[in-house]
Amino acid sequence: MTNNYESQTTNYHKKQTKLAENWQTVLDDIYKSILNNETIPNDPSCFNCSNAATLKCMDCGPKIFYCDNCFNYFHSVINIFHCSIYIKNFQVNTNEIKVPQLCEGECEHPLNKILAIHLKGMYKNI
Questions:
Q1: Could you tell me which of 92, 80, 91 has the C-alpha nearest to residue 126?
Q2: Are 83 and 61 in contact (CB under 8 A)?
Q3: Rounded Cα distance, 10 and 26, in Å
Q4: What does the buried/exposed string (b/e) look like for 59-94 if buried means 16 or more CB atoms within 10 Å of the residue's CB?
Q5: 40 Cβ contact partners less than 8 Å away, ≥ 6 residues apart
Q6: In the sheet where 55-57 sits, what is the strand order?
Q7: DSSP 8-state code for residue 52
Q8: Has residue 115 been placed in a domain?
Q9: Residue 57 main-chain phi, psi, to 5 deg
Q10: What is the rounded CA–CA span in Å between residue 51 and residue 67?
Q11: Radius of gyration over alpha carbons of the chain, in Å?
């Protein structure tokens, strides 16, 4: 009975060792691919219009760059919580989130600020 247990343990250990060795063979390729996707080329062009890009969206995917106009177009309604960086100085660009007016006409009630928190933990008082 002990012999069967030792045989199972040895087989499990061999399988785990082989699995770890397989990961080691692809680890460098994965690392290089991640670095390649995160680097910014010397003259990036806009994903949409091919003009000179000024922003890199961190959430749209790898190698996605935008000019100011296209970034505003794609991120003013649907991707409002995406984070981007300016290509020249690598500063974070925060989107100005516009909330639609909830009431019609002239209103006399006070305006309240809204605190928006999204999955990445960033927030903004609107």
A1: 80
A2: no
A3: 25
A4: ebeeebbbbeebbeebbeeeeebbbbeebeeeeebe
A5: 56, 65, 87
A6: 65-66, 55-57, 84-86, 92-93
A7: B
A8: no
A9: -80, 125
A10: 7
A11: 25
The 3-state DSSP class for residue 74 equals helix
**Helix residue spans in the chain (DSSP H):** 2-38, 68-75
Domain count across the chain? 1
Q: Render pLDDT for 74-105 as a digit per residue (tens, 0 to 9).
A: 887 778 778 888 888 777 766 666 555 666 66
Q: What is residue 110's predicted lDDT score, i.e. its pLDDT?
A: 65
Which residue range is the domain that position 48 belongs to? 3-96
Label residue 55 exposed, middle or buried (CB < 10 Å: 0-12, 13-18, 19+). Answer: buried
| Residue position matching structure tokens 């970034």 | 71
119 part of a folded domain? no
Does residue 57 fall inside a structural domain? yes
* Residue 122 located in a structural domain: no
Model confidence at 48: pLDDT above 90: yes
Instruction: Report the distance separating Cα 115 and Cα 97, nearest Å.
Output: 11
Report which DSSP code applies to 88: T
